[in-house]
Each structure stands twice: as structure tokens, then as C-alpha cells.
Automatic annotation (TrEMBL):
Protein name as annotated: XdhC family protein
InterPro entries per record: MoCofactor_Util/Proc, XdhC_CoxI, XdhC_Rossmann_dom
Domain annotation XdhC- CoxI: ranges: 15-66
Domain XdhC Rossmann: 171-313
Superkingdom field: Bacteria
Length: 346
């Protein structure tokens, strides 16, 4: 599944190149519970067509009602309006009206008739795999594009909004077994660009998951060539130290936001010892290794195990840190592993 931001920006570009009025809405701040995170995008055309989302639907309906009139996009001089702040859910009644949960409040920045050629330039750079910072002057509405060296959160001041756009999240899976098929499918559905590496002929011949890139080389070469960044995760799933360890020793010294490996606690302890002794992986980098991989849910089948892994990856991607819950989950996981050597813990 393609990066949602790119889909929104590409559609908005097409509308503007066709000469249609359009508005780009960006979630800039939230208070309380919010259906969509800061940085979420939605584009709305004068025809009422919408792409992307800033809420669960009710706010989109209100925006459509307000901006399907051409005059709503222009000032009294017939020029595109300057960027405008909009806030939904300031009162309990309004929060209920717009379907915002738990009295949440949502702040949007609306950009009217963004420049078509600037959008074309931005989309072209993103399609080429570049990381781009887009800065909006909140006084004039002018937009500037500049290369970015790393992903970063949306930044807003009284004078400018800066957003970094780039390639979507990537996942590299080592091993092409049945578990990988389930995990690759879930990851692709969740918006990840998925690559599977397995040098073994018997697994390569049986691979049939669509929209997933397959590479045949050695795992360490696959990691090196992928150049993991802060939007990349690497997961070793072969149970074969000769393959898994090669991938892990490269991934653990990269900026990848998540590195994991399948196996029991005993096997993962042995793996850490091997990586430290034979590959000189530092203790600091070994501390980044998730293993046994996945959140404990009592999973026993490949599909359930894939769910547990995907849940942990998404939590890491979203920066979720809940130490108390992690302690409870790990305790249950360890009890389960000691009692039942499940197929993914072998």
C-alpha cells in the first residue's frame, strides 16, 4: 500500500494542474483523544472530492459543506486566501457534534489553492525517494522546499509550518517461510514497503506474496543495500543463525527504528552472546534487539504470531513506551515460553 501522504499530495497536484480550486488541511495540534495524529493530511476539491483524512469523518463532512463553493477559496480581490487556522471541538457540544472522542480538540491549518508547480516538484522528489522539508509561510502562504537529512515531527510556530515528507515505512524480513507470508501481507496492508530476503532455493521457489519485493542475496548484503533509516525495521525469521545473525549485525548498527529476531529466550540469549563475541556488536546496540520478537498474546499459529509481531512493530513506530505493561506482558510471555515451546519460539 502506497504512502498516504504521497497519495494526498499527488491528487492535490492533479486538481491544481487542472485549474480546480482546492484546500490542503493539516492536523497541527490535538488535545485529548484524537482520531488522527498530528501531521495527518486531507485535500478537498471544489467538486467535493476528498482524499486523506483529519478525523473520523464528521469534520470532513463539515469542511466539504464549507468549501464546495468557489468563493470560499478566494479573498475579496479574487486571490487565494492566506493560510487559515481552524479548530474543532472547543466545547463539549461541538466535540460531540463532530464525533471527537472524550472531548478531544483538533487544530487544522488550511492552505487554499496551493501552487500547482510547487506541488509537482514536491511529488516528483518524493516519487524519486527523496526526503523533503516543506515550509509554509503562514503570513504570505508561500511554500519553500529543501532537502531533509532525517524524518522529523511537524513543527509549527506563529510564522511557519515545517513538515518533512519522504518514503514510507519499510520492512525487511529475513526468511521466506509461512510466518513471513502472513507478516509481509499485514505489513503491506499497514502501509509498509516490504522486502523479503532468502538465499535458499527451496524458499525462493515457493514465494508467492504479491506486492512484496524478493531479493536472493545474503541477508547482510540485503541490509547494507537497503541502508535502513529511521523509517525502517528489520526482522530475522529463519531460525538459522548463519542467516539471521548476518542480518542483525548490520541492522543493529543502523538507525532502524526496530530490529527483531524470532526464537526463545534461551536462543535469544545465545544470539546476543554470539553477536557480542564473534561480531563485536556493542552492548548498547544489542539492547536495541527485540527478542523474543512480538507482544505476548499466547500466539501459536503463524497468523497469530504475525499479529503479535506486527503489533510490536506498530507500537515502536508510534513511539509507544509503556514500561509497566511491558513488564506484565514479558512476565506472561516468559511463563508461556517456559510452559509451552510454541512453534515460533523454537
Amino acid at each position: 500500500m502506497e504512502n498516504l501522504d504521497l497519495i494526498v499530495l499527488r491528487t492535490l497536484r492533479d486538481w491544481r494542474l487542472q485549474g480546480k480550486h482546492a484546500v490542503l488541511a493539516t492536523v497541527t495540534r490535538t488535545w485529548g483523544a484524537s482520531p488522527r495524529p498530528v501531521g495527518s493530511l486531507m485535500a478537498l476539491c471544489e467538486t467535493g472530492s476528498v482524499v486523506g483524512s483529519v478525523s473520523g469523518g464528521c469534520i470532513e463532512d463539515d469542511l466539504i459543506t464549507r468549501f464546495t463553493n468557489k468563493d470560499a477559496f478566494l479573498n475579496e480581490k479574487g486571490q487565494a486566501r492566506r493560510p487559515q487556522w481552524d479548530c474543532y471541538g472547543l466545547s463539549a457540544d461541538e466535540a460531540h457534534r463532530f464525533g471527537l472522542p472524550c472531548g478531544g480538540t483538533l487544530e487544522l491549518l488550511l492552505e487554499f489553492n496551493p501552487d500547482a508547480h510547487a506541488l509537482e516538484q514536491l511529488v516528483s522528489q518524493l516519487e524519486a525517494g527523496a526526503l523533503v522539508q516543506r515550509t509554509v509561510d503562514l503570513v504570505s502562504g508561500a511554500v519553500a522546499l529543501a532537502p531533509a537529512d532525517r524524518p522529523s515531527a511537524l513543527a509549527v510556530t506563529k510564522f511557519a509550518m515545517k513538515a518533512v515528507f519522504g518514503p514510507g515505512y519499510r520492512m525487511l524480513l529475513i526468511g521466506a517461510g509461512q510466518l513471513t507470508e502472513y507478516l509481509a501481507t499485514m505489513a503491506a496492508f499497514s502501509g509498509f514497503s516490504v522486502t523479503v530476503c532468502d538465499p535458499r532455493d527451496e524458499y525462493r521457489r515457493g514465494w508467492s506474496v504479491p506486492n512484496v519485493r524478493f531479493v536472493e542475496g545474503m541477508p547482510d548484503d540485503a541490509v547494507y543495500e537497503m541502508k535502513p533509516d529511521q523509517r525502517t525495521c528489520v526482522i530475522a525469521l529463519t531460525h538459522d543463525p548463519k542467516l539471521d545473525d548476518l542480518a542483525l549485525m548490520e541492522a543493529l548498527v543502523s538507525p532502524a527504528f526496530y530490529v527483531g529476531a524470532i526464537g526463545s529466550r534461551r536462543n535469544n540469549t545465545a544470539r546476543r552472546e554470539r553477536l557480542a563475541e564473534h561480531f563485536e556488536v556493542s552492548g548498547e546496540n544489542l539492547a536495541r534487539l527485540h527478542g523474543p520478537v512480538g507482544i505476548y498474546i499466547g500466539s501459536k499459529t503463524p497468523s497469530e504470531i504475525a499479529i503479535s509481531i506486527m503489533a510490536e512493530v506498530v507500537a515502536a513506530k508510534n513511539g509507544i513506551q509503556r514500561p509497566d505493561l511491558d513488564v506484565a506482558i514479558n512476565k506472561k510471555k516468559h511463563e508461556f515460553e517456559d510452559a509451552v515451546p510454541a512453534m515460533h519460539m523454537s
